[in-house]
Amino acid sequence: MSSSPGDPGTVRSGFALRRLELSDLDAIERIEKASYPTPWSRSMFTSELAKPSSHSLAAVTPAGELVGYQILSRYVDAWHVMNVAVAPGHRRHGIASALLERLFEITRDDARRGYTLEVRVSNAPAIRLYERFDFRPCGVRRGYYTDNREDALIMWRDTHRGEGTPEEGTPEGAPAG
């Protein structure tokens, strides 16, 4: 199904994408706790869902089970991918990729801001996923994660890159600009 930025519903193979809602909080918490050693609190999700500058997406099965989500916040100079998680039993089925693809569709008219995120330096599968979407490492936040003081890799998707194409003159993997 086709949809406009105001209606993020999209049907994919085996799951659909729609807006994340307050009624999803119980399922969000289950996925969050299964996905991260220091999960976000319920109040953090409630706050993000209420912000007019956020885009929050859910991936649901045909039976209506929430199996993944993404939280995106708009800042002055960037779209910040705040949180992406997929239920353990549903990983490696293209859900995170579909959420990211939809993120770029929704924000296409405002992509000049660029996109940023932080990811644990040890999370190689997530880093590879983000690199497939043209995010590139551009720095490190030392001791960012409170559970073990692990560093966060700061990744950026430059606004001057074409769809899947590195900026001319920029070596693959190097930050542009």
Provide key terms for this protein.
28% strand; globular; 177 residues; Aminopeptidase; disordered N terminus; alpha+beta; 8-stranded mixed sheet; 2 domains; 8 strands; disordered C terminus; 4 helices
CATH class term of the largest domain: Alpha Beta
Order of helices and strands: EEHHEEEHEHEE
Structural class: alpha+beta
* Assembly state of the chains shown: single chain
Count of alpha/pi helices? 4
Reported by name, the CATH topology of the largest domain is Aminopeptidase
CATH superfamily name of the largest domain? Gcn5-related N-acetyltransferase (GNAT)
Percent of residues in beta strands? 25-35%
Number-wise, the strands total 8
Categorize the overall geometry: globular
For the record, give the distance between the C-alpha atoms at the N and C termini, rounded to a whole number. 37 Å
